[in-house]
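Below is how a single chain appears once it has passed through the pipeline. First comes the sequence as given, then the structure the pipeline wrote out for it. We keep one example in the README because the format questions we get most often are answered faster by looking than by reading.
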Amino acid sequence: MSDRTRFEIKLDKKDRDALMRAFETMPKEAQTQLRRRNKIQMAGLAQKITVAANYAPNPAQARMVARSIRPNKDRFPSITIGGARRAPVSRKGTERNPKPTYGELLYGVEFGASENGKGRLPNGGRRFPFYSGRYGYGSRGYFIYPTLRKNQERIRQDFIDTVEKVMVLKWGKNNG
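Resulting structure:
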């Protein structure tokens, strides 16, 4: 499993393929502008997720993971959460037992751990909050997925608006 997690708003395969063909025929300047606008929009979403981390069951760990959120400069809106960078945890890392990476903390902080006691520390505490529960076919999540679900329609509409602005207004005037 990768240490990085990439969240994308999925499109219908036919629609995505048609958009990809259109993007490939666009001039480099238009593609760069599309990537720049998508990154700016995803930076706003990353900020919303970071704010939502303050209300997670274990806010200190959630804020730590939220520091790893990066908007991607891509033709489709996406963000990256996690990564191979070592998280600044309180315990001392050793060669045999290094400090965890942001990617290793991501799923426990977002979805929690099972209640069977295997996540307990020697002092009786827990590494992660309890399991967040089910939502449809997946898990509910604590701060990342609820924020994505809440903003999904706006992300979709912003992406459509961006594509229209770049393709129709900018590229269409110069090439049509």
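Helices lie at 13-25, 28-52, 59-66, 102-111, 144-175.

See the next section for the split statistics.
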